[in-house]
Specification:
mainly alpha, 6 helices, elongated
């Protein structure tokens, strides 16, 4: 009984240090910092949903038919991937909603149509000087 009492404090201190180091190490390993305030479950789910949505769009771009269509339009797939990475949560949500509302039987033609619509939005934002994606599009201002 006496041994337990004498070892309780050093073991507790060791466990505290170990837990602190592992949680801090995990936060830095994930490319972030240690959070200073609690994060809600909704925020975590939203950020994870955004990551999944981006991955789904990139997977759709990786199909051969979409790659051929983009090449025929003269669009570099790398630029499209960069633009997908820079989308805000609202833009990504609107785009995925448009994909969900497209008819299920539309096949690749519907997907390619939505991607072309997406690229037209990029051109319009370039014309309005909001972005600078395409070098051949001049600002109207």
């Amino acid at each position: 009984m006496d041994v337990r009492k004498t070892l309780r404090r050093p073991v507790a201190l060791f466990m505290i240090v170990l837990m602190s180091l592992t949680t801090t190490g995990m936060a830095f390993a994930q490319g972030g910092t240690v959070p200073t305030e609690p994060v809600s479950t909704a925020e975590v789910l939203q950020s994870e949903q955004i990551r999944v949505d981006r991955a789904e769009l990139k997977a759709m771009l990786a199909t051969g038919e979409v790659q051929e269509k983009l090449a025929s339009l003269g669009v570099d797939p790398g630029q499209v991937e960069e633009r997908i990475d820079s989308l805000t949560a609202e833009e990504l949500s609107e785009f995925n909603q448009a994909l969900d509302e497209s008819p299920a039987g539309a096949g690749v033609g519907g997907v390619v149509g939505i991607i072309v619509l997406f690229l037209l939005v990029f051109i319009i934002t370039d014309m309005l000087c909001a972005t600078d994606i395409y070098s051949f599009v001049n600002c109207v201002n």
